[in-house]
Write a structure and sequence with these properties.
- It is a single chain.
- This protein has 259 residues and is an alpha+beta fold.
- It folds into 2 domains: 160 residues, Heat Shock Protein 90; 71 residues.
- The protein is 45% helix and 18% strand.
- Strands 1-5-6-4-3-2 form a 6-stranded mixed beta sheet.
- A hairpin with a 3-residue loop joins strand 5 and strand 6.
- The termini are far apart.
- About 9% of the residues have low confidence.
Length: 259
């Protein structure tokens, strides 16, 4: 039997900002400049957005105190998350909402993961262990949508590569990146006990064209890389063939700032 090897791929990613959102007049101008097929797609996205907006409103009503028991209220909150995120993705797919035209939001990872964990478990169809470490409640200038999409793709990748008996863990911890300036960072790590990847497989994950290994990781990790790059983070993948994979995303703060 050959000794197990550990391969690491680090993607050092630059920082890019988000501009202000499009004004209504800009949206109208862009719609008129679209061709027939694109214009129809924008119209369909608009109508779908109206329906999802209604779904989001009903979810808010169901989540109100006294409407549902505490046991089921979380489902209403998760429906609202699905509706809001689906609406954002549909608008972008139609091409009239530019993702680069958004101001960064502020997110606290432990809070987001706690709110998203039930929905994430339902999507991937298996339980996830969550570990929250010290200094993880620093405020990050990253959108909720970006973190949720990164988390979803990493969790789905882990689930697709891990047998039912294997564990999947999401761990979050923070630290100081530069002691003199007080700059901090928060590290989110998704670890699985799956089949792992070889050096060649790991290298192809960062090529320009999406690759796909037997677990279906290819496209998911390409999406993660693009999202992390756009939000100013760093992505690192460590894999042990036959023992599992660990994907880590580090986001930075200007200073240590607990929520």
């Amino acid at each position: 039997m050959q000794p197990s090897q550990s391969f690491t791929a680090i993607q050092g990613l630059g920082v890019s900002g988000f501009n202000e959102p499009l004004l209504q007049s800009d949206q109208q101008q862009s719609l008129f400049s679209l061709g027939p097929s694109s214009l129809e797609g924008a119209r369909l996205a608009h109508d779908a957005g109206n329906l999802l907006g209604a779904l989001s409103l009903y979810a808010e009503l169901l989540a109100s105190p006294g409407v549902l028991s505490k046991r089921y209220r979380s489902y209403a909150n998760e429906i609202k998350i699905l509706a809001d995120r689906s609406n954002a993705l549909i608008e972008r797919l139609a091409g009239y909402r530019r993702d680069s035209a958004r101001m960064p939001e502020k997110v606290v990872l432990p809070n987001l993961i706690e709110n998203y964990s039930g929905l994430l478990t339902a999507i991937i169809g298996r339980p996830i262990e969550i570990v929250i470490g010290p200094l993880s409640d620093q405020i990050l200038a990253v959108s909720n949508e970006v973190v949720e999409r990164v988390l979803l793709n990493l969790a789905k990748n882990a689930a697709s590569a891990t047998p039912p008996s294997g564990n999947i863990t999401i761990a979050v911890e923070g630290g100081r990146t530069c002691h003199s300036s007080g700059q901090g960072h928060v590290l989110m790590t998704v670890t699985d006990e799956g089949s792992g990847m070889s050096r060649e497989k790991l290298r192809t994950l960062f090529e320009s064209a999406p690759s796909k290994d037997g677990t279906g990781r290819g496209l998911g990790l390409q999406i993660v890389r693009e999202l992390v790059e756009g939000s100013g983070g760093h992505l690192e993948i460590q894999s042990h063939p036959g023992r599992g994979t660990k994907a880590s995303v580090k986001w930075f703060t200007r200073r240590i700032d607990a929520a």
